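Why this split exists: single-chain examples teach little about how molecules sit against one another. For that reason, every record in the complexes split bundles all components of an assembly together and asks for one structure covering all of them. Below is a record exactly as it appears in the raw files.
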Amino acid sequence: MSQYILRRLMIAIPSLLGISLVLFVVLALAPGDPFSELATNPNVPPEVQAALRAKFGLDDPIYLRYLHWLAAMAQGDWGFSFVSRVDVDTLILQRLPTTLYVVGSSQLLALLIAIPVGVYAATRPYSVFDQLANTFAFIGFSLPTFFTGILFILIFSVKLDWLPFVYTSVPGSGIPWLLEMIRQAIMPVMVLGLFQAASMTRFVRSAMLDVIRLDYVTTARAKGLGQAKVIVKHVMRNAMIPVVTLVALQVPAVFGGAIVTEQIFRIPGIGSLLISSILANDTPVVMAVTFVFACLVVLFNLIADVLYGWLDPRISFR
Amino acid sequence: MALLDIKGLKTHFTTDAGILQAVDGVDISINRGETLCVVGESGCGKTVTAMSILKLIAMPPGKIVEGEIMFEGRDLVPLTSRELDDIRAKEIGFIFQEPMTSLNPVLTIGEQIAESLRRHEAVTKKQALERTIEMLKLVQIPNAAGRVHHYPHQFSGGMRQRVMIAMALACRPKLVIADEPTTALDVTIQAQILDLLQDMKERFGMAVMLITHAMGVVAETAQRVVVMYAGKVVEEAPVDELFGNPRHPYTQGLIRSIPRIDLDAEHKTRLEAIGGSVPILINPPVGCRFAPRCKHAMSICTQKEPRLREIAPGHRMACHLGDAS
Amino acid sequence: MAGLTLASPSAERRGYSPLRETWRRYRRHKPAVVSAVLLLLLIAAVVIGPFIWRVSISDIDVVAGLQGPSLAHPFGTDDLGQDLLARMIYGGRISLAVGLAAMLVSVFVGTLIGALAGMSRGALGYALMWLTDLFLSLPQLPLLLMLIYLFRDGLKAVFGPEGGIFILIVLVIGGLRWMPVARLVRAQFLSLREKEFVEAARALGASPVRQVVRHILPNALGPVIIAGTIDVAAAIIAESTLSFLGLGFPPDTPTWGRILYDAKDFLDIGPHWALFPGGAIFIAVVAINFIGDGLRDALDARKVI
């Protein structure tokens, strides 16, 4: 198993390098010098300008520039935000936990909805429950997150006045503060979680239906184990293997949804940081946040690979 | 009293094209400790009959529309799946055709055998493991104590079928249904598995219902034989009687299609094939279902269905030809 | 197999026509049929609409701002009193055009890369599949945003504010969504390459290009059409998302996403402003997805009994 994880790690590194190369090429191809506006920006002290130009080696050949940039990124030296006037890595580290908290809770919510609904629907294909679940799933993943977000605000904040629609992150402590923290996270987590749950439910259902008609399920039935045990121990366990792969493929979309959700509810995460930096032409932050998102996707794919190996003995033994 | 007595069983499937009459009025009975072979071409309803006994067919689209399945004097047809769970594996064990796909790939074989023991008998986890190892030794799996923790993909096809046999016999059932247990295996392994099955039968004294399409297997293992065609029983007899005096044209065809390697090349007996193939059982032909392929077909054969009747003690068949002679 | 003629008399009754058979199976998927009608109506509305509803999209009338639906303004007005119906019709043209154009880009790129990867038995095939997997694990939206941030001004200078952003959005969305098509086409290639009819064509001396164009691509068409349909919906969502984040079309170009972006600060006093464009995006996307589902039923050969 540990050998398998090591092998997956070895595969993750080239793809991380590949992504960094794509990002760098995009930056290099961009018309004009992305740093030229620094010269006209009165907020930037000349010595910072000079240091930056030297660091990025703007006059070096392109492969050298890539290696320099890569070395700097690898060392955590991500540059300086001209707008916030702090190091980019500090800025991102401040914002990252909020994003992970919202994305993590919504994924959890999605799993808690998708697995029971998908499993139950698959055990009763074409029943009323199955058709309802299917219709809702279909509507759910056709509703873009920005529209669900607005609908939620309209219903729960404007009409019913139950939940706040602006996320605040004032530090505090005590039960009331904690409750407020949870209360303000409900809508963003619901928006993102329901969107994910919709496509996950479809994955779970179709994977279950694929497994349920296999020979070894009949074998399990012939043992008199009972419907619940057959479904959970024999069908679900196997159906989760393709589901893990499909969910991993969805990870980039999850972070896309997170950016939109953070923007709607003004959550101070790295998604809204990306948008505000783009609007403020803060190139180092834009680059760094994009790279962080790429790293997160690779990391989650790695986690999915490990899960896959854990679920399927045929993989980890090879 | 027979151990298992199937009377007038009809299992139909609802399909887009209509009702598929996969099993259409089958009578089969098995006595305690007896080996009964059910033979016939693929698609003749052998497997559906066997699966109907424990309701292992998918329902829907499948449905037992008529008949009774008496096991030790108790009708299994009206029982719910939950009630049947106490009989599955405990009273009636099942060995499936495809050892490569009939074992769950993500559970160790030990877990898969032990779960059946733990379901039906009051054993601890440790006792279940011990009995599992014992069963693996009985089916001659080398290094049973180590292999018990291995996954199916670490076994060959023949070894997996041994595991399947161990699984089916773990709870010492009174009847074992083996659905073409050797079809998917190499010829050399086939003989080993049949020997093992015979061995186990003698050791535990259970009855065996062996489903096969190979007449060679029938001759070697069976005491009694049931020949099925297109969802119906066409002939039934003790094994010597069936091979010595086959009466139904279909049975005769089946026997003639066995390659004879004991006759030397001088004889040059031609291997005969039965022309045509099993009809699709949606709107099957009226009259005898074998008539379109039968060399002796008469006009009555396409009009009236022949009834299964006794022509000699223990020998029953369904053919109009018998009426005339 | 021998009993097949017995089981399907319908095949004899009419001459076998793949198109008619596809339509027959598509028709059985009721939501897909309703969706097709709905989408056709939507397309008709945005194409013919401006000729019937002759209200300017940019006439400002601050006094009539933020009005709900009325006879004068069936969809109401925005904060500047601009007519929302006219703006929605205009925006629909752009949203649907972006969706279709981006789909064409992704299908073209995907087919090209998939075909190359499927034909090559060597390093090129592996390299292309690695590239495909790499693109699948790219964080799409951040990259999309970054590309638009970096190239926006350059293209605006060449093609004008609207044309530049249209080309950029179509190329970027299309260029980030070709991977599923590439995988499908490659898979078709790998499975069809060894089939008899392709072998026969090869034996008869058909050139590789001819094999691909005449024998393999037509067989890969079904899955590609399904993937392409779903791509249209995804591209519409992507464009709306960009506009919603304020990084798509310029403010004076009212795409559905842009209208929603402008409306989101007036939810309490003018909810209709957000509901109409949001609803339009939802209806377009759900209809296209259902059509994709219906096509899957109709074109998936494995479902034939």
